[in-house]
């Protein structure tokens, strides 16, 4: 350290504060933190008196306060303005934490979802009954006059755009919905379309979208796993016949949920892995 008159070179100051020389040069050029003096050879020197100012700049910068806010505070620094700056910064941090928690919730939901998929894949490709929780979904109808993979994917991307434009976190789970009456009448594509799951706490925002917000009720579901596309009705017909044979009553819309999409295709199998789920009332069950 240069002890002469308690001045520090730019390299010494950078080392003490744990920042780079380039950062100090940048601060100088942009009038954020300037040297105490520059000698006739162009070398920058800083006094020990300046250390607290640089320390505060580094501290605020580390808390993600903008350089403009830091400069404004240092030029008009008193206890009240500093408290106001820190309160504003805390508010920004709390917002960021909330957004990060949303992303973590979506990630956890995706992990939980894949655990369910692993269990479904272990089952034989036969109908079965299971219980499902209530879900909120966003729905858009297909153009079924020319139903194909393109229409399915374009509808799904429209649903994603609706979520993004209304600041709704993308929950995991999407697929096709077939109206109850269409399933009962075996006119499956009539009124069918795509859906995407949405977090329950975002219903108010979802209601502002152009999509229809619907509820998949909690209760018993007749299910069958399959490989194939949702507009291919072979497995829907198998499940529909099984429901009838077992004297179950269809009480809601059918969902064909895409569990593993194109990104999971293999050379042996180039089809989506899905599960059809139809809400049913079991024989002898009581309902109000």
Automatic annotation (TrEMBL):
Record flagged with keyword Transcription regulation: yes
PROSITE patterns: HTH_MERR_2 (PS50937)
PANTHER family with a match to the protein in the record: MERR-FAMILY TRANSCRIPTIONAL REGULATOR, REDOX-CYCLING DRUG-SENSING TRANSCRIPTIONAL ACTIVATOR SOXR
Pfam families assigned: MerR_1 (PF13411)
Domain HTH merR-type, chain residue ranges per copy: 7-76
SUPFAM superfamilies in the cross-refs: Probable bacterial effector-binding domain (SSF55136), Putative DNA-binding domain (SSF46955)
Keywords: Coiled coil, DNA-binding, Repressor, Transcription, Transcription regulation
SMART domains for this protein: HTH_MERR
Source species of the chain: Brotonthovivens ammoniilytica
InterPro entries: DNA-bd_dom_put_sf (IPR009061), MerR-type_HTH_dom (IPR000551), MerR_fam (IPR047057), Reg_factor_effector_dom_sf (IPR011256)
Name of this protein: MerR family transcriptional regulator
Coiled-coil intervals: 76-110
């Amino acid at each position: 350290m240069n002890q002469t008159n308690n001045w520090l070179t730019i390299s010494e100051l950078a080392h003490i504060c744990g920042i780079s020389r380039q950062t100090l040069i940048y601060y100088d050029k942009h009038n954020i933190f300037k040297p105490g003096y520059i000698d006739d050879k162009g070398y920058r020197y800083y006094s020990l008196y300046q250390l607290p100012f640089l320390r505060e700049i580094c501290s605020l910068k580390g808390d993600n306060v903008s350089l403009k806010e830091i400069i404004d505070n240092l030029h008009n620094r008193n206890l009240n303005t500093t408290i106001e700056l820190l309160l504003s910064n805390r508010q920004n941090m709390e917002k960021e934490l909330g957004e990060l928690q949303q992303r973590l919730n979506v990630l956890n939901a995706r992990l939980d979802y894949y655990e369910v998929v692993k269990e479904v894949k272990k089952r034989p490709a036969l109908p079965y009954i299971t219980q499902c929780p209530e879900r909120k979904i966003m729905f858009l109808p297909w153009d079924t006059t020319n139903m194909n993979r393109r229409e399915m994917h374009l509808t799904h991307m429209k649903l994603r755009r609706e979520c993004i434009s209304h600041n709704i976190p993308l929950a995991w789970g999407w697929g096709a919905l077939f109206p109850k009456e269409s399933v009962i009448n075996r006119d499956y594509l009539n009124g069918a379309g795509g859906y995407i799951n949405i977090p329950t706490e975002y219903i108010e925002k979802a209601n502002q979208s152009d999509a229809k917000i619907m509820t998949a009720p909690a209760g018993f579901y007749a299910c069958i796993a399959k490989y194939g596309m949702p507009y291919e009705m072979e497995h829907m017909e198998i499940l529909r016949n099984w429901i009838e044979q077992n004297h179950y009553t269809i009480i809601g819309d059918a969902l064909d949920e895409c569990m593993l999409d194109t990104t999971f295709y293999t050379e042996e199998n180039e089809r989506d892995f899905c599960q059809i789920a139809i809400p049913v009332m079991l024989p002898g069950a009581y309902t109000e």
